[in-house]
Amino acid sequence: MAKRIIVTGAGGYIGSMLTPYLLKKGFKVRAIDRYFFGFLNIKNKNLEIINNDIRLLKDKHFKNADYMIDLAAISNDVTGERYKKETFDINHLARVRNAKLAKKNKIKKYILPSSCSNYGKIKKTEIATENFKLKPLTNYSKANSYAEKDILKLASKNFCVTILRQGTVYGYSPKMRFDLVVNRMTYEAWKNNKILLMKDGTQRRPTLHIKDAIRAMHHILNSKNDIVNRQVFNVGGKNNNYMIKDLADIINKHFKNKLDITWYGSNDHRSYFVSFEKIKNIGYKTNYSPFDGVKEIIKCLNIGKIDLNDNTITLDWYETLEKWNNIIKNITINNKVVKF
Ligand SMILES: NC(=O)c1ccc[n+]([C@@H]2O[C@H](COP(=O)([O-])OP(=O)(O)OC[C@H]3O[C@@H](n4cnc5c(N)ncnc54)[C@H](O)[C@@H]3O)[C@@H](O)[C@H]2O)c1
Q1: What is the pLDDT of residues 24-66, one digit of tens each?
Q2: pLDDT tens digit sequence for 180-223
Q3: Of the residues 6, 8, 14, which should be mutated to test ligand 1's pocket, given the most ligand atoms within 8 Å of the CB?
């Protein structure tokens, strides 16, 4: 019998790649999302679409499922600063509540895709293992850290909880995000012939190809509970820790070192390299480097498969939705606008 997996945030950057991947691997997928960034363009008898808010889920949404991957979230720092209350409500409180509902409804395995940004800023000489004390600097990473802590406490023999701390993800997705560092730098190089570099370039970031992120989730689903239950893993491998200026060099190499650097922003305090030994020790390894991601994104840009617009920048899109919600509210009569 095919296993049923609940994927929240299925319509987002990672979710819209993860969902078809899981269907292909023979899972039944219950895809729960507000679909803020648009619906999934997939037809499959094993796909059940639920258009709902994760703050409103009930027992019925968790029935007859085996696993859950809880992607839905306000997904970056700037959006978390702009929508503080919502970030804590969604990323922390709703997730804890839903993990409890998952446990109550006998879901066997729960995966929380969290973030390496929870480490905040660590010394240049250090590499963060999963045991490092978290020092989250933003609302986004604070909410994620609280969710990790509270959800890990729910782990039991029959409810396996695994936290995956991901680096900044890059690579193609049908719901592209150009607010992610490798994706955006590649876009600017391709479109405007410049390397856009956030000051001062020495900030350290783990990165992760989107396909490697998804394979890590699958790896946890396939792993024995006694290896992954109550565990936190940094997700990555070799070719994943970079200073931002090294990423710029990688992109420039692709353009035969012809592009000039344009600096922006004030100094970014988030800086952390992380260790990937623990996940390597359970048999996971990455397949891609940022250079592969850059090549892939340029190829997609060249054929017009992706482009940058408000819908691909998380904060811009949420602000656009809020703006239009207000406009439509003000002009709507009897649920109608122009057509009566
Ligand atoms: N992309 C990265 O670089 C990265 C890195 C580390 C961790 N993560 C984590 O992985 C997860 C997925 O990231 P992503 O890049 O796909 O983000 P995304 O913003 O593209 O997708 C998030 C999805 O959640 C949905 N959503 C948001 N609030 C909701 C709500 N209240 N109810 C229902 N649905 C809601 C959105 O509609 C969207 O489809 C997030 O939890 C994020 O924090 C992502």
Answers
A1: 999 999 999 999 999 999 999 999 999 999 999 999 999 999 9
A2: 999 999 999 999 999 989 888 998 989 999 999 999 999 999 99
A3: 14
Q: For 105-135, write each residue's pLDDT tens digit.
A: 999 999 999 999 999 988 888 999 999 999 9
For residue 181, how far is the Cα from the chain centroid? 13
Atom of ligand 1 nearest to the CA of 56: 32
Separation of CA 229 and ligand 1 centre (Å):
23
In the chain, where are the structural domains located?
A: 4-316
- How far is the C-alpha of 206 from the C-alpha of 198, rounded, in Å? 15
Reported as type and span, the H/E element at residue 286 is none
261-298 confidence digits (pLDDT tens): 898 887 777 788 999 999 999 999 999 999 999 999 99
* Alpha carbon of 253 to ligand 1 centroid (Å): 31
User: 50, 69, 75: which to mutate for ligand 1, most atoms within 8 A of CB?
Assistant: 75
Residue 73 CA to ligand 1 center (angstroms) comes to: 4
The response to whether residue 314 sits with its C-beta less than 6 Å from ligand 1 reads yes
Do residues 73 and 11 touch, judged by C-beta distance below 8 A? no
CATH superfamily of 4-316: NAD(P)-binding Rossmann-like Domain (3.40.50.720)
Compute the residue count for the chain: 340
Query: Is the pLDDT reported for residue 158 higher than 80?
Result: yes
User: For ligand 1, is residue 9 a contact (CB within 6 Å)?
Assistant: yes
Radius of gyration of the chain (CA): 20
Is the CB of 71 within 6 Å of ligand 1? yes
- Spatial distance between the Cα atoms of 256 and 299, rounded to a whole number of angstroms: 16
